[in-house]
């Protein structure tokens, strides 16, 4: 396994690191207070091609492989997680479905504008009665002539407010259960598309999640994504694809927290010496470093395997699960190291602490990742005849 980045990736990575530090970080408190990503930052991100990380070059994107995307996600993860989520959701679950499952006409229509960030992508699966049990969705799609009429609702949809293009899962045959779900490409301007309440979250300020309502939503037949009845399988593929990227974003956040901690422990004095000299503090830093280095190795191993075309269902689930656990652990230790200052809203540590919590829930809960891992172990055991 060779995780060495190409010259092009190193160049882009260096530019993104500089952009994050000089352009995004100074606005972190403003994002937190206003719950909005400044348009200046969004426009600069478009100019850098960050909205096209996952989109092939022939459609105007950067066409990065998974290792390359993780290298960029790691850098983006080092700044405000609301901004990180806007980019990550668009380039991940918001666009990979069209990239991997779309036909040529769909790709030609949607990907060029998604690559430039003119159109923002989102993924609409979760419903009030269908979270971890995605097969239990109730939104329906009934074919009438050359259109499908969709009725139902979704909630907790990331990028719902900014989104223009939605990958929507709906039931086309109730009798077939999970095999009766179909994927659709839905434009926000289609008749019957209604944006509901913007949800107020614990963290991820600047990243907006909202309800979606479909009231006799008219979707052209040509906007079926993949095969009819394969929507549930498509959803699982789309979610699995993004797990290494999410682990990389978590890795970047952990590295940033470590950076804050190392600076603080050398400046803060107690008992007549920098607290870096206190063994219990050293132990916490050592634990953080151990988890970060393990997560880095795991993340890039999974990314490399994906680029080789290997099956990574189990490994991607492990990366998502471990990345979430590590981010929460590192954030907790960072608060402890900073003491009272780490609990204050005018310092970034408490923001990372709040933002970390959602990583155990979205794009597949930690419990679901454990179920996936166990299922793959069962499959592997059966395969080898144990």
Structural class: alpha+beta
Q: What oligomeric assembly is this protein in?
A: single chain
Total strand count, please? 10
The share of residues in extended strands comes to 15-25%
Overall mean pLDDT stands at: 94
Give, in order, the helices and strands.
HHHHHHHEEEEEEEEHHEEHHHH
Keywords summarizing the entry:
13 helices, 386 residues, 10 strands, alpha+beta, four-stranded antiparallel β-sheet, four-stranded mixed β-sheet
In summary, what is this structure?
It contains 13 helices and ten strands. The protein has 386 residues and is α+β, with helices and mostly antiparallel strands.
What would you say this structure looks like, in words?
Helices cover 51% and strands 15% of the residues. By secondary structure, the protein is an alpha+beta fold. The strands form 3 sheets. The protein has a 4-stranded mixed beta sheet. The chain has a 4-stranded antiparallel beta sheet with strand order 2-3-7-6, with helices on one face. A hairpin with a 2-residue loop joins strand 2 and strand 3. Helix 11 runs antiparallel to helix 13. The longest helix has 29 residues. The chain is globular, with a radius of gyration of 21 Å. The mean pLDDT is 94.
């Amino acid at each position: 396994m060779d995780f060495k980045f190409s010259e092009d990736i190193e160049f882009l990575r260096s530019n993104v690191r500089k952009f994050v530090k000089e352009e995004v970080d100074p606005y972190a408190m403003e994002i937190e207070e206003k719950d909005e990503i400044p348009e200046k930052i969004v426009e600069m991100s478009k100019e850098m091609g960050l909205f096209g990380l996952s989109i092939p070059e022939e459609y105007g994107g950067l066409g990065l492989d998974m290792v390359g995307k993780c290298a960029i996600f790691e850098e983006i993860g080092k700044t405000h997680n609301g901004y990180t989520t806007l980019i990550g959701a668009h380039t991940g679950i918001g666009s990979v479905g069209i990239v991997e499952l779309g036909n040529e006409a769909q790709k030609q229509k949607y990907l060029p504008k998604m690559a430039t960030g003119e159109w923002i992508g989102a993924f609409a699966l979760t419903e009030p009665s269908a979270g971890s049990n995605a097969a239990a969705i109730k939104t329906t799609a009934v074919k009438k002539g050359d259109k499908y009429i969709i009725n139902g609702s979704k909630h907790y949809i990331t990028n719902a407010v900014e989104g223009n293009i939605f990958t929507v899962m709906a039931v086309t045959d109730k009798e077939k259960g999970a095999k009766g779900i179909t994927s659709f490409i839905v434009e926000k301007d289609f008749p019957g598309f209604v944006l509901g309440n913007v949800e107020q979250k614990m963290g991820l300020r600047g990243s907006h999640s909202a309800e979606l309502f479909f009231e006799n939503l008219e979707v052209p037949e040509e906007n079926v994504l993949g095969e009819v009845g394969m929507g549930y399988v498509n959803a699982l593929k789309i979610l699995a694809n993004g797990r290494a990227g999410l682990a990389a974003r978590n890795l970047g956040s952990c590295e940033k927290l470590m950076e804050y901690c190392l600076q603080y422990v050398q400046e803060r004095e107690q008992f007549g010496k920098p607290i870096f000299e206190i063994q219990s503090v050293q132990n916490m830093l050592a634990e953080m470093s151990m988890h970060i280095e393990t997560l880095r190795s795991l993340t890039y191993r999974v990314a490399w395997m994906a680029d080789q075309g290997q099956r990574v269902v189990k490994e991607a689930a492990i990366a998502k699960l471990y990345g979430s656990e590590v981010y929460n652990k590192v954030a907790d230790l960072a608060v402890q190291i900073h003491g009272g200052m780490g609990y204050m809203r005018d310092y970034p540590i408490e923001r990372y602490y709040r933002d970390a919590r959602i990583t155990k829930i979205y794009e597949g809960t930690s419990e679901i990742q454990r179920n996936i891992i166990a299922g793959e172990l069962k499959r592997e055991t059966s395969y080898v005849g144990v």
